[in-house]
Design goal:
alpha+beta, 2 helices, flat
């Protein structure tokens, strides 16, 4: 087994009012001591963006909306 490595992705949006954080960061994914850190960062990003992806709030579509509809239907 190879040595463990780390990787991170930080994305900042320079547009005024577009980031929710004061430092302008919109994405911050950190993977420490992993055999394939870049692949793990990609996996995490794909999972999060597929579930919590950006869209306008009035837009009633997306994977997260579909998941909520399934849960609500199951709960009755």
């Amino acid at each position: 087994m190879g040595r463990l490595q780390s990787a991170a992705v930080i994305v900042a949006d320079p547009r005024e009012g577009m980031a929710r954080r004061a430092d302008g960061q919109t994405v911050h994914i950190n993977v420490c001591e992993h055999p394939t850190p870049v692949a793990e960062v990609r996996r995490i990003y794909s999972t999060v963006s597929g579930t919590l992806g950006y869209r306008e709030l009035p837009q009633p579509s997306g994977n997260d909306v579909w998941q909520v509809k399934l849960i609500m239907h199951a709960l009755g």
